[in-house]
Amino acid sequence: MGELRSRRSVLAVPASNPRFVAKARGLDADAFFLDLEDAVAPLEKEAARETAVTALNEGGWGGKVRSVRVNDASTPWAYRDVISVVEGAGANLDCLVLPKTTSARDVHWLDTLLTQIERAAGLPVGRIGIEAQIEDARGLTEIDAIAAASPRLESLVYGPADFMASLNMRTLVVGEQPPGYDTGDAYHYVLMRILTAARAHGLQAVDGPYLQIRDVDAFRRSAGRTAALGFDGKWVLHPLQVAAANEAYTPSQEDYDHAERILDAYEHATTVDRRGAVMLGDEMLDEASRKMALVVAGKGRAAGMKRTP
Ligand code: GLV
Ligand code: MG
């Protein structure tokens, strides 16, 4: 996972709103996407393409991962979204987000179209990645084929709002348990399914939005849950959610220090003492402990953490 881009906070920016686009530049999100899909009204779709191209070419995005969310493959807008954005700003674009991905075919379509445009425009072939949103029953059923569909894939992204609608779940609050369901976690299956498919194919797993944007504590709880499972990050819709996401998907200093200590102790045990199991304080370590520690240490290193001296 080491070579993948950082996506602790992925900022959703409606491409039809130049004020939001300008403001997004100054926020501390790891990644952003300019949205041509559900945050843009049908009558604004065409103008939004131009705004997105201009915003990418004007730059000023720092080290953020730069994406555009096109309309889904079943819509009349999708092909021209891809052509306009990649012909217009392909050199300043890292990824396309493909919403409502329902089968490997959707990914193949986008992969092929991207390759055609890259060739025609003299762009390096294969550099632009794909992030597939899993947001309906079909997408979840087909998830392994989707995850394996293209080397361009970088992440699988959970789309909770569309997903809940697709299942006919009886709730209107995205990210909270459906009222009346008083046992377990209604989202555990979908989250673990996405996470497992992502890891099986070397992709990142990104949690979707939390729509009650003024309730930062609720956002923190929601992000904390998927961070604990192993997700790499979450969409953010508001400046207040950015810092909370960066914190949630970065290990605590204590856990980071502990992970680095485990790696040192295990390295010493296996190479100097030639032993496969060793004690660190009261904790017994073996090769599996090393792998777990590497996950936490890897996320901490990627976030620029340093060990407590
Ligand atoms: C995001 O696209 C969602 O549907 O939640
Ligand atoms: Mg959606």
Structural summary, described in words:
With about 300 residues, the protein is α/β, with parallel strands linked by helices. The protein folds into two domains: about 10-250, TIM Barrel (Alpha-Beta Barrel), CATH 3.20.20; about 255-300, no CATH class. The protein is about 45% helix and about 15% strand. The chain is built from twelve helices and ten strands. The chain has helices spanning about 20-25, 45-60, 80-90, 105-120, 135-140, 145, 160-165, 190-200, 215-230, 240-250, 255-270, 285-300; strands spanning about 10-15, 30-35, 65-70, 95-100, 130-135, 155-160, 205, 235, 280, 285. The strands form two sheets. It has an eight-stranded parallel β-barrel, surrounded by six helices. α4 links the parallel β4 (about 95-100) and β5. α2 packs parallel to α3. The radius of gyration is 20 Å and the shape is globular. Magnesium ion binds near residues 38 and 161. Glyoxylic acid binds near residues 160 and 161.
Structural features:
binds glyoxylic acid, eight-stranded parallel barrel, 2 domains, 15% strand, two-stranded antiparallel ribbon, TIM Barrel, 309 residues, binds magnesium ion, alpha/beta
Quick summary of this structure?
This protein has twelve helices and ten strands.
Which sheet architecture does the biggest sheet show?
A: 8 strands, parallel, barrel
Range of strand content: 5-15%
* Helix/sheet category: alpha/beta
Bound molecules: glyoxylic acid, magnesium ion
End-to-end gap: 27 Å
H and E string: EHEHEHEHEHHEHHEHEHHEEH
- Total of domains: 2
For this structure, the quaternary state is single chain
Average pLDDT, rounded to a whole number, is 95
The CATH superfamily label of the largest domain reads Phosphoenolpyruvate-binding domains
- CATH class value of the largest domain: Alpha Beta
CATH architecture of the largest domain: Alpha-Beta Barrel
Kindly provide the radius of gyration, computed on alpha-carbon positions and rounded to a whole number of angstroms.
Answer: 20 Å
User: What's the number of extended β-strand segments?
Assistant: 10
What CATH calls the topology of the largest domain is: TIM Barrel
Give the strand order, joined by hyphens, for the main sheet. Answer: 1-2-3-4-5-6-7-8
Helix amount, in percent?
40-55%
